[in-house]
Structure formats: C-alpha cells, structure tokens
Amino acid sequence: MPVDLAGRPIAISGASSGIGKATALACAKAGMPVTLAARRIDLLQEVAARINNAGGRAIAVACDVVDPEACRKVIARTNESFGPIYGVFANAGYGYEGEALADDDKLRQLLEVNFFGSLNLIRPAMETMRAEGRGHALFCSSCLSKITLPYYAAYTSSKAMQEHFARAMRMELAGAGIHVSSVHPVGTQTELWDRLREHSEGETMADAGSDRFMQGPDRVARAVVRCLRRPRGEVWTSLGARLVFSLGAAMPGVAEPIIRRRASVKRASMRSSKRTSRGD
Ligand SMILES: NC(=O)c1ccc[n+]([C@@H]2O[C@H](COP(=O)([O-])OP(=O)(O)OC[C@H]3O[C@@H](n4cnc5c(N)ncnc54)[C@H](OP(=O)(O)O)[C@@H]3O)[C@@H](O)[C@H]2O)c1
User: Pocket of ligand 1, candidates 12, 16, 152, 242: which has the most ligand atoms within 8 Å of its Cβ, to mutate?
Assistant: First the structure.
C-alpha cells in the first residue's frame, strides 16, 4: 500500500531554489505540510506564500545547515507547527571545480555544508521519527556518488558520503519503521551551476560547451514524492542513467579513460576561450 502523504509534515533544506523548492511545491501538492529551510529567508517566504495561497501549509525558517542549532530549530518548528515530523529532505548543497589536493579549507567548508549539514538536519528529525516509530529521511546525493570526475573530488566525495550514510542508516533502521533514501539527480537546470562558477577559479568545465542532458528540477521533485509514497533505497529519474553510472562504477578501467578524455577536451576549450577573451 502506498503511504498516504496527506497531513504528514516534511522539512526540506535548500528550499529557496532548484530541486529543494520544486520538491517543497510537489510535497505541498501531495498534501504534506512543509517547512522550508535555507539562508535566503525572502525567497523561502515567497515559496511559503505560494503554498499557503494555494491552500497548502508551509512555514519558512532561516537556517545555515552548518549550524546544528539552526537545524534543530527547523525540526522543532515543524513539530510545533504541524505535529510530529514525518519526512526530512537534506538537500542543501553546492560544488566547486578544483584539483583534488588544492585546498583543504575549501574541501572542509564543502563537507560542512553538503555532508555534515545533511546530518545536522536529519539527526534531530530522527529523534521524533524514532519516538513515533515512523518516518522517511532522504539525502540529496547525485549520480556522481557512483563515479567521480577529474577536478570534482570534493563535490563527488561529499555525494558518495551521503549515499553511504543513507545505505548504512537504512540497514540500521530497517526494523524501526523509518525509511532512508538517497536521491541521485543527473544534470538539472538550477542555480547550482552559477554557484559552481562562483566557488571555482572562474570558468568551469560545465561552461565549456556543455553537451549534458539537463532535466528540470520538477522531474526530481516528482521522483522524490514517488519515493515518499512508495519508499525505496535510491531515487533516480531515469533507468538509463542509473545503469550507465552503475556500470561506470563497476568498470573503472573502461569508464575512466572516456571521462578523462572528455575532461581534457573541455579544459582545452576553456583555455582557448580564455586566450580569445584576453585577445592573445
Ligand atoms: N543541479 C544538478 O545538476 C544537481 C545534480 C545532482 C545533485 N544535485 C544536488 O541537488 C541539491 C540541490 O541543488 P540544486 O541543484 O537545486 O542547486 P541550487 O538551486 O543552487 O540549490 C541549492 C540550495 O542549497 C541551499 N544552500 C546552500 N548552502 C546552504 C547552507 N550553508 N545552508 C542552508 N542552505 C544552503 C541554497 O539556499 P540559500 O543560498 O538560500 O541558503 C539553495 O536553496 C544539492 O545537494 C546538489 O548537490 C544537483
């Protein structure tokens, strides 16, 4: 039997844009009261107003996920406003492009948001879920939790850590009535790409003649709602992508030369466009 989501509260981090915002709207449409969390409170309030005006229930809570107390407040506000939390989607995150060993401070900062930020939100939610004997925690990982790319060690490692935590927690909580899932979007049209440029040293491989298939965030949002209704371990928006990335992980000897070649072509194109813009 699918889970009836009506009236089951969910908290979502990174709900001010992209996948988090789309998922908040989709969950509200499914009847879930939604707590929206992120740093840009003005954007969260706009999304909350849109949900409330459409007859749903939503609140906006300012939160930097690196702050465990701020995350705890997000869960407490959910419990107070809507009753015991049922779902939590740890979605806030960003990436940067840079050599694997270039900068430990940048790596630590990214892990604080993408990885520890997920735990900061899920941990207090889990206290309520354990007491209630039901719930569903989702990590927004990536298709790049399965394979990595040159110059993306930091981002892809954080996504792999989220996936492994989801796997371990799923087994630990199997008898407790609590589901744990990891979400694995492929390239999605969101602000992530602008943030990627800001956090990198200027232009990125993603800017250099992208031939990636880009899906809309609504597609990920619909897949998340399907998973909340019919819980499963991993959320993918296409079986093809799931197979390609899983095969890539199983056969690094085949996958890595292809990935490396594509990255070299993109880096070369970046260098040449830099020379052109400098007028060399
Ligand atoms: N787009 C893709 O192609 C893609 C593919 C695979 C996985 N993903 C994953 O999807 C998730 C959502 O990203 P997106 O693509 O939707 O990008 P996005 O539009 O840039 O959304 C990122 C969200 O994270 C929030 N955020 C960032 N740092 C935060 C912090 N310290 N505390 C609280 N919130 C923070 C941002 O809100 P504020 O700035 O308002 O705080 C924003 O709402 C990320 O985990 C990303 O890794 C994306």
Answer: 16
